[in-house]
């Protein structure tokens, strides 16, 4: 930090302290932390936090580290970069990521494009009973219940988890490419039009 004024040195040193604090907080937590919690603990404003995250990631890049801080919705997590996958695969073999069936991918697609959604909505999209697949994905931590619909029977509402976003390298479901035929509203409209035309779906 040569040739810096006292004020510039103080600002740079304060940023470095917050970068170090961010790193140890995310390391110790070992899972995604809401941005609001990080702002409270560092402390930092919502405007400052992305700059602190960026500074830590630049430090990792400069050192050739396999680590990075990734944003997941309104949270941040310390995780490995994609280029470390081969190395970790050699260490953990098939346990690095869960093996998912075609049916599981279908349910995850249905939920991620329509969340929160009920089992009935998932089954309309897939066209088959999905109870066992949904239960399995909940056990794997890729789906979770997020409240109940105010209808008779109070059906559970399902959403994808932070683990799902991390597994598929997404910051949020907003990063998913547009797929109208996976949308519940689109399918409902198609079914209604087919029914009006006397066509069974």
Automatic annotation (TrEMBL):
Which InterPro entries does the UniProt record give?
ScpB_csome_segregation, WH-like_DNA-bd_sf, WH_DNA-bd_sf
Query: What Pfam family does this protein match (any one)?
Result: SMC_ScpB
Key words, A-Z? Cell cycle, Cell division, Chromosome partition, Cytoplasm
Q: Which GO terms describe its biological process?
A: cell division; chromosome separation
Q: Which residues form a coiled coil?
A: none
In terms of NCBIfam families, this protein maps to:
SMC-Scp complex subunit ScpB
Instruction: Tell me what this protein is called.
Output: Segregation and condensation protein B
Provide the taxonomic classification: Bacteria, Bacillati, Bacillota, Clostridia, Eubacteriales
């Amino acid at each position: 930090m040569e040739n810096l004024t006292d004020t510039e040195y103080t600002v740079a040193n304060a940023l470095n302290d917050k970068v170090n604090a961010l790193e140890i907080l995310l390391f110790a937590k070992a899972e995604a932390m809401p941005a609001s919690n990080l702002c409270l603990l560092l402390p930092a404003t919502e405007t400052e936090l992305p700059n602190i995250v960026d500074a830590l990631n630049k430090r990792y890049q400069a050192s050739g580290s396999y680590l990075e801080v990734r944003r997941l919705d309104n949270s941040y997590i310390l995780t490995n970069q994609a280029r470390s996958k081969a190395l970790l695969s050699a260490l953990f073999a098939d346990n690095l990521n869960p093996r998912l069936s075609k049916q599981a991918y279908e349910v995850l697609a249905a939920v991620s494009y329509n969340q929160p959604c009920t089992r009935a909505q998932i089954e309309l999209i897939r066209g088959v009973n999905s109870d066992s697949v949904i239960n399995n994905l909940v056990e794997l931590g890729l789906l979770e219940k997020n409240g109940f619909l105010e209808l008779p029977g109070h059906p559970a509402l399902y959403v994808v988890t932070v683990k799902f976003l991390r597994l598929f390298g997404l910051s949020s479901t907003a990063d998913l490419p547009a797929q109208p035929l996976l949308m519940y509203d689109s399918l409902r409209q198609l079914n209604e039009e087919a029914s009006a035309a006397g066509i069974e779906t």
